[in-house]
């Protein structure tokens, strides 16, 4: 049986995609999200497999990149958690693979 192939042509430039981002909508959305694992994962919190699968995926991704990293003895391994939210990724992943981690979160949580 012949395999059907389809050619998809990307006609959208990066500039066009970026112009579709509405930061006010993002701020409004995240302002209404509960500052818990369940909240930031859209209801797929600690009682589901999603948080663990997310961390396993991050570990797998980092393992593939590791050969490209400088691993000189005595060098400090830095990490940054962009959009850190409640710090879940730093707590469960980054602090285990980095010596120092900075968290960057543009939203204010109460």
Automatic annotation (TrEMBL):
Gene Ontology CC terms, in alphabetical order: cytoplasm
InterPro entries registered for this protein in UniProt: MeTrfase_NTM1, SAM-dependent_MTases_sf
Reactions mediated catalytically: N-terminal L-seryl-L-prolyl-L-lysyl-[protein] + 3 S-adenosyl-L-methionine = N-terminal N,N,N-trimethyl-L-seryl-L-prolyl-L-lysyl-[protein] + 3 S-adenosyl-L-homocysteine + 3 H(+); N-terminal L-alanyl-L-prolyl-L-lysyl-[protein] + 3 S-adenosyl-L-methionine = N-terminal N,N,N-trimethyl-L-alanyl-L-prolyl-L-lysyl-[protein] + 3 S-adenosyl-L-homocysteine + 3 H(+); N-terminal L-prolyl-L-prolyl-L-lysyl-[protein] + 2 S-adenosyl-L-methionine = N-terminal N,N-dimethyl-L-prolyl-L-prolyl-L-lysyl-[protein] + 2 S-adenosyl-L-homocysteine + 2 H(+)
Highest taxon, organism lineage: Eukaryota
GO annotation (BP), single: methylation
EC number: 2.1.1.244
An example Gene Ontology molecular-function term: N-terminal protein N-methyltransferase activity
Keyword line: Methyltransferase, S-adenosyl-L-methionine, Transferase
Protein name in UniProt: Alpha N-terminal protein methyltransferase 1
């Amino acid at each position: 049986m012949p395999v059907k192939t389809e050619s998809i042509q990307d006609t959208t430039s990066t500039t066009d995609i970026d112009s579709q981002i509405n930061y006010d909508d993002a701020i409004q959305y995240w302002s209404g999200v509960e500052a818990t694992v369940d909240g930031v994962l859209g209801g797929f919190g600690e009682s589901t497999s999603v948080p663990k699968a997310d961390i396993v995926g991050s570990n797998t991704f980092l393992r593939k990149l590791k050969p490209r990293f400088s691993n000189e003895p005595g060098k400090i391994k830095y990490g940054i958690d962009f959009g850190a939210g409640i710090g879940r990724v730093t707590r469960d992943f980054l602090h285990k693979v980095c010596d120092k981690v900075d968290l960057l979160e543009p939203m204010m949580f109460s």
